[in-house]
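for the writeup, i need someone to sanity check this before i put it in the appendix. the sequnce is what the collaborator sent (i think, or maybe the updated version? ugh). structure was predicted straight from it, no edits. if anything looks off just tell me and ill rerun, i have time this weekend
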Amino acid sequence: MKRNNKKKKAYRISSFFKVLILLILIAIITLGSIAGCYLVSVLKKAPPIEPENYREKLFETSRIYDSNGDLLQRLVKDEYAEFVSYDNIPKDLKNAIVAVEDERFFQHSAVDFKRLAGALYYDLMSGRFDQGGSTITMQLAKNLYTSRVQKIERKLMDIYYAYQIEDALSKEEILEAYLNSAGFSKGTVGVQAASKMFFGKNVSDLTLAECALIAGVTNLPEYYTPYNRVNITDEDDLSSIQFELVPVDTSQNENIDKIIEYSKSLLELGRIDKFDLHLIESNQIVPMKAQFNERSLERQHKILKNMLNQEMIDQGRYDEAMNQPIVLNISNRSQSGISSYFVDTALKETKEILINAGFSKEDAESELYRGGLNIYTSMNTQIQQSLEETVQNTKYYPGNSLDVNGDPQPQVGSVIIDNKTRKVVALVGGRGLGGGSLANRATIPRQPGSAIKPIGPYLTAFNHGATAGDVYLDANLKYVNLPYIQYKPSNVGSYVGWTTIRKLLVRSSNVGAYLVSRDIHTDFKDRKNRNSTYSQHVNNEANLNSIIETLENLGVTTVDKVNDLNYAALSLGGMTRGISPLEIAGAFTVFPNEGQFEKPTFVDKIVTNTGDVIYERKDNLVEVADKRDAYILTDILKEVVTSGTGRNARVKGQVTAGKTGTTNDKKEAWFVGFTPYYTASVLLAKDNHESLGFSSTTAATLFKAIMDPIHEGLDKVDYDKPDGIYRKYVNGRYEMFKDDTSPRNVDKLYWGQEDDEDEDKKSDDKKKKDNNNDSNKNNEDSNDSKSKKKKRKTPVNNNDNNNNR
């Protein structure tokens, strides 16, 4: 019985273990099935990848350059990255990364199971999933294809992608991709960006000690960052400290007076420039000391020890690197002393180019900041810096003050264009401000006033047969009671009576600009036009549309074809939307460019990070006027500067031409002018559209201040006179005319003037003959003739200040 009991007991024990084993097997199978299902579900979510095209996944900061190919700015939106090839990365840096991140990198495949098992055990026990164990290949998968979120699901996807990467790429390619995608703190991605950011040099020039320091950052970037930003104190030596100019953190209550005091000292030491100081004083940026982070040195020492233990370096190099002091050289991401107005405008043009090349708006934006583009612009840095410095000088702004927002008023918009290339070489959209999201007054339209006259009414009139010697009556129209003179502008200042177009433009006569505009399509042989002081048969609609066409041919995009279809807008500059300093400067280049126009540009070339040229600027000149008309109008605009309204604008040692413009109530003051070398626009105006209290002579003064320094050392030259021009004596001087043209209305010079008796008799005889031939002359024309026979002097009004000049 005992034996049977033993057998039964053994059987029960054996059965228990069998059941236990069976349960364990069932559990394993169940868990395995669950795990397998989970794994399948995770991998199903994994999008397909193309590891061989890893360069396309590596984001790279685009860069923008000036006309000499010097770096202006790295287009950092959130992170800064620059690609560097495997061959240009020093061996010490590659070894340092392998030594600390994955010492068996070159021996294992996608996964180092020994290291992974230990990491997973720790993660499961702690429930935190923050332990290492990832190989460099798995980290590359995380950088390129998954995310930095610490989840088991992401870890599985990293492993899945890592095997695909290992199958497609060599170890060298994997390491290249990793070193260009890893984060290194302070918004830097990749070893080249880190090297430039922390040491101010290319990665290929790093020492062993510097390589080990950079390699240590990737583990915990913000913890092991080479430096931290701290406030400058009185104990700091401003002549030697490393510092950054960073955007102001509005959450901090900094002592602005102390910051300005430090900043002025930095200016005196030559470590910042005047423009930087302006931005600091306006509380936009602040200098922060870069304080070396000792934790990064601890990490560096560990890496150097690993390299020694893994026989990557010998004892001598180890000792040398351990004893080498780390000297930071914090790199700026943009050219010092230059506002962002020019770059902002160049970037806008770049986006348009990319969209025209087939990119969507979203893709163009992404490509611009993360596509590693090299954007070469037309900026002449020397001229840009000169312009920046000049417009910051408060002496050029009468009534200088700060508005409720703390912005200086009046404000300025100015553009400089190279006449030879038609490229913008400098642009400023405000003073005391840095650009960015702020208003760019160089591209915002304002009413141009009389600055429109050369490019609007006069150029259009010349295109339709007008000459510099055409004669008009510059008189106050309020005395004229004729049904065909419905609009009655008045001059600012006096009237000169019968005179030529040259004199009208030099004096900036509002009446003259209006009368010339009325005659754009006039038949001067028409009897009523020929025998009247003012043309009777005119085509107002055709005249105005012709001016609009001319302006549009000159790149003006802001004409309102409904509300601006009137002489006040198109002859005198009272446009609904106005013209920007950029577009009006471009329009004026038609004169020094012999009647040809090309839209001013900022971008010369765009090159991808692999060297492919996706855009290169080509000349696209369009003839808008006869070169002879352009030359004659240029000659008139030269006289505007020598003896007209633009006397203050004469550039030292240069032939200068241009036109003033002051709008109603003096809300805008303009000068737009040119030399044989450059064309420039200057707009002075208040942001709130209040009266300036001064006129265009102030803008002309600033124009000269801008242009004088950029012309230093340039020879004095004049414009080449084209063939096909002759001279004829008109109204007391020799005037220039195109061949096959002659002055119109010249006989009217004698109407209403107290000249000698012979001239009076000639005029009276002509009038009698014309009256006999015109028996049906209407009452208004008769009254006009009678007014001429009275021989009264032209009325003069010196008190009319309500119109543009």
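Residues 2-45 form the longest helix (44 residues). The two ends are 132 Å apart (CA to CA).
thx in advance!!
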